[in-house]
Structure formats: C-alpha cells, structure tokens
Amino acid sequence: MNKDEALQRLKSPIARERLAGARYLARYPEQQDLEYVRAALRTENDHWVRLALRSALTTSTGDSYKDEVLASGAEDQEQRLIIDDTYAKALEETTKSLVHEIRPILGRIKSAARTENKDYEYSETKREIDQLTELMEAIDLLGRAAAPPDNTEFNLSDLIKSVTKSIGVGATARIYLAGPDALVVRGDKRLVELIFSNGLRNAIEAIPEQQLADVDSDVVVTWGSTERDFWLSIIDHGKGLPPGISEVFKSGFKLGVTNKNGHIGMGLALARRAEKSMEGKLSLTPREHVGAKFEYRWSVPAEAGKK
C-alpha cells in the first residue's frame, strides 16, 4: 500500500478498509495529509478507525491536535486508547505469526510420538502435547480477540443455546436458560461467543463435585436488551470468588479448586481482551450468599460500522 491508496481507503464504506488506510497513515505520518485525516475523523464512527486516525494525528510532529487534547484535559484517556490500539495491533500480528509457525511443528511432533510410542494414547507424552496444543489454541484465540470487531446482526438467543448445548455435553452441573426465544443483536458474533463460552466454562467448573447433589448447585444463564445495550449474564452457585478477585482476568490465574487439572487458565483473560475489542463492559462479582455473577454488556454499534 502507498499513501494515495491509504487516503482512498479512508473513503471506503467498509470499516476494515478504512482501518487499513488509517493505520498506514499512522505509521507514515506526513504534515500534508493531516487535513484529510482530520476530515475523516470528523465523520468516523467506528471505534478502531477513530483510534488509528487519532494516532496518525498525534504522531505527526507539530500537529495542533496534541494541544487540543491537552486543553480538553483528556490527554490520559487519549493516550490510553492509542496505546491500547497499538498493543492490539501488535498482539494480533504477533500471535498470528506465532501460531502459523508452531501449528505444523506441533503436528509433526504429535505424528512422530504416535508412531514411536505404541501406548501413546495413555502416555505422559500425550498429556503434555495436549497441554501444549491447548496453549497454542489459546494464543490463537487471544490474537483473534485483539482484532478489530466485525459487527453484524445475529441471533443472541441461538448463539447462547448452541454454545450451552456444546459445552453442556458431559457437564455435571445443571444449566438453566432464561431469556427471549429470539433476540437479534448487533456486534461481533465471534467475540460474544468467546466471552460467553469462557464465562460458562468457568461457571460450570466453579461448582465442586460434592455440591452437585444440592438443589441450589445449578448455573443460570439469562440475556436481554435495553434501549442502550445488549447483555448476557451467568450466575453460578459455586463456592464464590477467592481472594485476589482483581487478578482473575490475568492470564494463568486459576480459581483454586474450581479449575480442572491441567487447565491453561487463560479463559477470563481472553474474555477481557474480547471485551476491550468490542468496547463493552465485562464484570465478575461475588453474590451475597453463594457463587458469582459473570455479566457482559455492550452498546449498539454505530451504523457507520456496518458492512
């Protein structure tokens, strides 16, 4: 891509095209392009494109936009948003490259291990390879969670029912669904699925096996919408949240005895990254008497983000 192509892409009706153009201009800022960038920013409603345009402005030497940011008192927030966008770009590109290199190597290791070890299916080698495979898939998901959201219309009710049916196979906890039969929402379906599936897995694992015979040991999933946002909620009746609640969204954090042996522990960190990409609000809070509540809310995306 060159500068002329980047400027042309800023006029595209497709958000991803505009994002590509804005990111090019952020990498190679030139004073003569600032008016085009400012004009694009005035009409842009897509969150990620706006961040890239702001980055192009703030990285241009002598640009007055910096002074406007300082005067508004919003410098910290602007810098945080730009840094987060830069981090997301690096994360997406790095994980994609890493997984591309690791996946075939891991495949060859698995093939060789099956050939050389007659008892492979019951071996420690298989358990370690499975652990590594899970980690690779988690890294792949992390990269996809950092990608700009692809907003479309989809049926949230169908998504929840499908994921619940898939994850619920073999689960010992009882899962109850309480929401509208059909609820069409707008957002990134893959990111909502990632957030919900990880929240549901953690809720199921939060209930100790010895508690499953109790009446109040179920998992309750609800969902709906308001005039301002869409939401989904998962309530479990497990032992509740352990000390260090502020750490649960970090990679590798395990909820004590609630996680299965060998669990990578990246589920909630993945959900948090997806939350940032969609500009939603994710929370995990203890309930008054027992268990925890996992909730995700996101606003209706701007019309300009439609494909």
Walk me through what this model shows:
The structure is a single chain. This protein has 307 residues and is α+β, with helices and mostly antiparallel strands. It folds into 3 domains: 3-73, Leucine-rich Repeat Variant; 82-146; 152-305, 2-Layer Sandwich (Heat Shock Protein 90), CATH 3.30.565. The chain has 10 helices and 7 strands. The strands form 2 sheets. It has a 5-stranded mixed sheet with strand order 2-4-5-7-6. The chain has a two-stranded antiparallel sheet with strand order 1-3. β4 (219-225) and β5 form a beta hairpin. The longest helix is centred in the N-terminal third of the chain and has 42 residues, at 75-116. The protein is flat and about 65 Å long. The model is unreliable at 61-75, 251-264 and 303-307 (pLDDT under 50).
Number of domains in the coordinates? 3
Give the total of beta strands: 7
Q: What structural class do the secondary elements suggest?
A: alpha+beta
CA-atom Rg in angstroms: 22 Å
Q: How would a textbook summarize the main sheet?
A: 5 strands, mixed
CATH first level of the largest domain? Alpha Beta
Compute the average pLDDT. 75
Could you state the order of secondary-structure elements as H and E? HHHHHHHEHEEHEEHEE
Helix content: 40-55%
- Beta percentage is 5-15%
Strand order of the largest sheet: 2-4-5-7-6
Low-confidence stretches at least 5 residues in length (pLDDT < 50)? 61-75, 251-264, 303-307
CATH architecture of the largest domain: 2-Layer Sandwich
CATH topology of the largest domain: Heat Shock Protein 90
Number of helices: 10
Q: Give the overall silhouette.
A: flat
End-to-end separation in angstroms reads 22 Å
Tell me the CATH superfamily of the largest domain. Histidine kinase-like ATPase, C-terminal domain
